[in-house]
């Protein structure tokens, strides 16, 4: 309880008194959904009357620029947003934002370009308060869409909403255990033509979080939720994790695409692994441990069990992954020289391509009933949010074990489901 009281006081200090932004977030899956969402909530925007006045004063007719010229300016704005995400708004190009720009996410709202920049600077630890509260902040842009230029029958031009899909992380270093909060979602930018040098302005930004704003059974459409839901989602990430079981090895790197309600979606690079069939799990660990001696394998151990329970079970340890500038991961020479020969005749070296994987976690020992239930639960929440596993995945259960085999503490287990290329928005 003391930890939760401290977390709540942290929220009050930062996000109520300082109007801090926690997340650059999600829009609807389509421009129509985004426009509908904006229409439903515009009256609640801080300073909406200022936006409305600004919109009325902006001439969006074809007398400002031609359609082709406006398209070029929107394309440049997208490049600006891309660069701002990569650098965490250092610098923020304020000329592309209205002086009365508004921001709203599930937990906070603010008005004015200076307030916008001040909050970003705090999250990035570029202010005195930010230096005291946060560290390791970063935002990754996964996708940017929208911004189409439309011409009406009277020759006037308009711009459809720009949407970004992103992941955000920041560490709250004021706590002794230094928790890292992670948010993923989409941002909707309302953009209008202007007659100044840059030619376009961002009037407002509306964010949603994947963890709380996806409407159940809607195929991934976002909706607003009560502020208390957002506060709870944030505070839950600040809780101490307790005594964790020791990881067996350094973890295979990945990019977080979504922190959803009950699951994650990650992008893994192409990697090589050493794979063998096994009957007893301890024997599989022993064989792979002996084979990879001196090779520095990675966690997790990936195991696959067929649905009929009579076919071979397989275990794989990742060895290497694709580095920046490489097209394929390098395969250790000593692994290829031994695999398939003599006592290692059942061992193979395999290379898996880059993939998008849905993850469901569990903390109990990875026994059959536990793993199969986690697999069923993951499939259910993916269907709820409109994500599609690859065809045929139901014939087996694939799960990951991170802990050293006889380690003590809270375990980390996961079930993995590859997603169809057209079964996710990334």
Automatic annotation (TrEMBL):
- Family membership, please give it: Belongs to the HEBP family.
The coiled-coil segments of this chain are none
* Matches recorded under Pfam families: DUF2358 (PF10184), SOUL (PF04832)
Q: Please give the start and end residues of each transmembrane region.
A: none
Q: Which InterPro entries match?
A: DUF2358 (IPR018790), Reg_factor_effector_dom_sf (IPR011256), SOUL_heme-bd (IPR006917)
* Top-level taxon of the source organism: Eukaryota
Name-wise, this protein is SOUL heme-binding protein
């Amino acid at each position: 309880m003391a930890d939760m009281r401290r977390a709540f006081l942290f929220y009050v200090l930062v996000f109520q008194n300082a109007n801090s932004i926690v997340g650059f977030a999600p829009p609807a899956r389509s421009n129509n959904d985004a426009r509908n969402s904006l229409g439903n909530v515009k009256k609640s925007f801080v300073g909406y009357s200022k936006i409305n006045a600004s919109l009325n004063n902006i001439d969006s007719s074809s007398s400002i620029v031609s359609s082709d010229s406006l398209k070029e300016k929107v394309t440049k704005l997208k490049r600006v947003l891309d660069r701002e995400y990569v650098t965490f708004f250092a610098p923020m190009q304020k000329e592309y934002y209205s002086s009365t720009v508004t921001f709203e996410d599930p937990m906070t709202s603010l008005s004015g370009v200076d307030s916008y920049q001040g909050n970003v600077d705090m999250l990035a630890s570029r202010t005195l308060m930010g230096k005291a509260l946060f560290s390791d902040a970063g935002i990754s842009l996964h996708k940017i869409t929208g911004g189409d230029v439309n011409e009406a029958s009277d020759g006037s031009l308009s711009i459809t909403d720009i949407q970004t899909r992103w992941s955000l992380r920041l560490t709250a270093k004021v706590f002794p255990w230094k928790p890292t909060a992670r948010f993923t979602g989409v941002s909707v930018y309302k953009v209008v033509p202007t007659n100044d040098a840059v030619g376009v302005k961002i009037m407002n930004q509306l964010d949603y979080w994947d963890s709380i704003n996806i409407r159940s059974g809607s195929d991934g459409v976002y909706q607003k939720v009560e502020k208390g839901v957002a506060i709870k989602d944030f505070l839950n990430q600040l809780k101490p994790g307790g005594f964790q079981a020791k990881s067996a090895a350094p973890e295979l790197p990945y990019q977080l695409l979504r922190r959803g309600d009950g699951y994650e979606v990650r992008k893994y690079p192409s990697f090589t692994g050493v794979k063998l069939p096994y009957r007893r799990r301890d024997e599989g660990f022993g064989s792979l441990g002996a084979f990879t001696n001196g090779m520095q394998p990675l966690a997790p151990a990936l195991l696959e069990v067929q649905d009929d329970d009579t076919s071979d079970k397989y275990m794989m340890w990742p060895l290497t992954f694709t580095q920046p500038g490489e097209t394929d991961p390098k395969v250790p020479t000593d692994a290829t020289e031994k695999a398939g020969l003599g006592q290692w005749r059942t061992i193979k070296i395999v290379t898996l391509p880059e993939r998008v994987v849905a993850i469901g976690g569990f903390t109990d020992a990875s026994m059959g009933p536990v793993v199969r239930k986690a697999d069923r639960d993951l499939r259910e929440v993916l269907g709820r949010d409109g994500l599609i596993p690859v065809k045929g995945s139901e014939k087996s259960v694939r799960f990951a074990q991170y802990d050293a085999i006889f380690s003590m503490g809270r375990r980390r287990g996961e079930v993995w489901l590859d997603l169809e290329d057209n079964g996710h928005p990334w």
